[in-house]
Design brief:
This protein is of the alpha+beta class and 659 residues long. It is 50% helix and 18% strand. The protein is built from 24 helices and 20 strands. The chain has a six-stranded antiparallel β-sheet, with helices on one face. A hairpin with a 2-residue loop joins β3 and β4. α9 runs parallel beside α14. The longest helix is centred in the middle third of the chain and has 31 residues. About 2% of the residues have low confidence.
Length: 659
């Protein structure tokens, strides 16, 4: 474990030396701790308590400035510098000394070692012990730049590491940004192509070209405006660009088509451009303003959601403003002169003539008749519209049209979170976690065989905590991991590469795991987006806890019988068993106070913190503890002797009532 962590720390420091990387965090690791274990027998032999031993260590390990001496030849600093940083250095401390010169060193009384905190944080990757390095962007760094630098560093590092140490890139969130940018580029390219084809068929080539050019011009103008408003190119703003892509071309089409219609009426090119733009100027301006009015409220939404959504109206308003300027001022200027007669355009005139003849036949035939009938039977037309609205509402109410608060978005990751009964040994949770991982490995092997290649990037399993939906949770260096929780996350290739649905993988994984003994709940998730809680939530309220538990049990049984209902969690937690200590009258008579009892019991079970100090990048605690063999069983409490202020001792069972 120490070698693994030190290798990860070395990699972190080397990555931080890269120009493109400025923030790297470790997760799935335990914090450093200097452990001083002393047996009860040795404490009694030397007449010491754990608190006294901790105080002796605290007093002897010190780094304290004493000010400065202002002498005639200059200023001299004075400092007491006796701080220790390793178990070996602490072992040389004197904890007892006698007038005859004999001394008792800490290593004579205790066993010392540099170890890790006693938490249940433990991570594995593809079944091997692992440390997660999370690289984040800060300031003006770009996600793609950071990702490229880290991947290049990883490839270089792989060639230098010994075979026993492996490095893998497990998740790259910059791929989501790249995918969103590719989507915008593809949509823009296909949109440009469709616009120029349709306009060329129904109007003319030159008009189609200049209307189409208005799309990239409007976007380029928006890219100039957006940074001045404090926004940037990110996942949310790119969504705004994709959203407005279908709106930005409308104004140019309206203006361009009206100029074309003016020319058809015999106006000169210059007059057609001026009058055509002026004639539709008001409608175009008001159409832009109504769209701006629809999106503007998103800019004043409060809370965290408002901070996310603020970029959308900024992008939409910027693009529409640039589109308005382009369609009313720039486009008419391009269309105010007669084009040169180009030979290669002549074949398009024949195609346009054919398309125009078909369109005119439709307008003068079926369309004209339909309008005439609708006007002649106006009450029937209104009744038909009302009926259509009623049918639509009925389809929504009847469930034909599904309603979802937030649509499920397939992710490239699948999570499984395990909750056991509180207080179970970590070995039991580890065994269940291994079973769930094994089922995932079997399922991945099946998918690999079907696809003919590797589909998963790896399985990251974490004992002691749950991973969030967004990433591998960074639980700090030695956070209080719990023994009854575990999580597994599988990262896959992108959908267009892996060739199957992660939602289908989640379903098959859940079926393969089935019911596990001693497990309170196993929940699976494979969709992206915000988590608004369970789709079905029922809350009971009653003054009697037993009645609540009976109701929860009955509801759970009913829900388990409904097909399609999964991951049922009743919200109950019995909690860990607890022993409450109350001071006896005999202990009070011996001079013991509640605080004395609490401190001595805490020292015996949890330990006493002697020193907390900074060592390189880590905060290291020096803990004085009993050996694990003397604080692992109920019988150890019975053997615990409580010291009284007068120097006597009494067993815990006589000093306190244990409930």
């Amino acid at each position: 474990e120490r070698t693994l962590r030190e290798s990860a720390v070395t990699m972190r420091d080397e990555m931080l030396a890269l120009d493109a990387v400025s923030k790297v965090a470790l997760s799935g690791v335990r914090g450093y701790e200097t452990v001083i274990e002393v047996r009860r027998e040795d404490l009694r032999r030397y007449g010491m308590t754990m608190s006294q031993l901790a105080q002796a260590i605290r007093a002897a390990s010190i780094d304290l400035p004493a000010g400065s001496l202002r002498t005639g030849s200059g200023e001299i600093l004075v400092r007491t510098k006796e701080q220790r940083f390793s178990a070996q250095e602490y072992g040389a401390l004197t904890v007892l000394s006698r007038p005859d010169g004999t001394r008792v060193l800490l290593r004579d009384v205790a066993t010392l070692r540099d170890d890790f905190t006693e938490t249940f944080t433990e991570a594995t990757f593809n079944g091997l012990p692992a440390v997660m390095l999370t690289v984040s962007r800060t300031g003006k760094q770009t996600p793609k730049g950071v990702a490229s630098a880290v991947k290049a560093f990883t490839e270089k590092k792989l060639a230098e590491l010994p075979p026993s140490v492996k490095v893998a890139t497990w998740m790259d969130r910059s791929e989501m940004l790249s995918g969103r940018m590719d989507l915008l580029t593809r949509n823009a390219a296909s949109g440009l192509l469709l616009v120029i084809i349709v306009l060329a068929l129904f109007l003319e080539i030159r008009l189609a070209f200049w209307v189409t050019i208005g799309i990239p011009i409007s976007f380029a103008g928006a890219f100039l405006l957006v940074p001045s408003m404090g926004a940037s190119v990110n996942m949310i703003s790119l969504f705004g660009f994709i959203l407005v892509l279908g709106l930005v071309v409308d104004d140019a089409i309206v203006v361009g088509e009206n100029i074309y219609a003016r020319r058809q009426l015999g106006n000169s090119y210059e007059l057609a451009a001026i009058e055509g733009a002026r004639e539709v100027g008001h409608p175009v301006i008001f159409s832009i303003l109504t769209t701006v009015a629809a999106f503007s409220p998103l800019a004043v939404v409060g809370g965290m959601m408002g901070k996310f959504m603020w970029a959308v109206p900024v992008v939409v308003v910027s693009v529409l403003f640039c589109s308005l300027v382009e369609s009313l001022l720039i486009l008419p200027a391009h269309l105010n002169h007669e084009p040169k007669d180009v030979r290669w355009v002549k074949p398009f005139h024949w195609v346009q003539g054919g398309v125009d003849r078909v369109l005119q036949r439709f307008l003068q035939g079926p369309f004209r008749k339909a309008v005439s009938i609708a006007v002649a039977y106006r009450y029937a037309t209104i009744a038909f519209l009302v009926l259509s609205a009623m049918v639509t509402v009925g389809m929504v109410k009847g469930g034909i049209i599904q309603f979802r608060f937030f649509p499920p978005i397939e992710s490239d990751r699948v999570n499984a979170n395990i909750s056991m009964t509180e207080g179970v040994p970590a070995d039991e949770t580890r065994a269940i976690m291994a079973t769930v991982v094994e089922k995932a490995q079997e399922l991945i092997a099946e998918y690999d065989a079907e696809q003919g290649r590797s589909t998963a990037r790896g399985i990251y399993a974490l004992l002691g905590n749950r991973q969030s939906g967004g990433g591998p949770g960074d639980f700090g260096l030695g956070g209080a991991g719990v023994s009854h929780k575990a999580s597994i996350r599988i990262s896959f290739e992108e959908e267009n590469i892996r060739g199957f649905s992660t939602i289908d993988f989640e379903r098959r994984w859940r079926e393969a795991v089935g019911k596990l003994p001693g497990v309170v709940n196993v929940s699976f998730r494979s969709n992206l987006g915000p988590n608004f809680g369970a789709p079905v939530m029922v809350q009971f309220s009653h003054a009697d806890t037993e009645q609540l538990e009976l109701a929860a049990d009955r509801l759970r049984q009913e829900l388990e019988g409904i097909e399609g209902v999964t991951d049922i969690e009743d919200g109950r937690s019995s909690g860990k068993q607890q022993m409450d200590l109350t001071l006896t009258q005999r202990a009070r008579s011996a001079g013991l106070a509640q605080a004395d009892l609490a401190r001595q019991v805490r020292s015996a079970i949890y330990g006493t913190e002697a020193v907390r100090q900074q060592k390189d990048r880590d905060e290291v605690r020096v803990m004085v503890k009993l050996p694990k063999s003397q604080r692992a069983n109920m019988s150890d409490l019975d053997e615990l002797l409580i010291r009284t202020p007068r120097g006597g001792e009494m067993p815990l069972r006589e000093a306190a009532v244990v409930t």
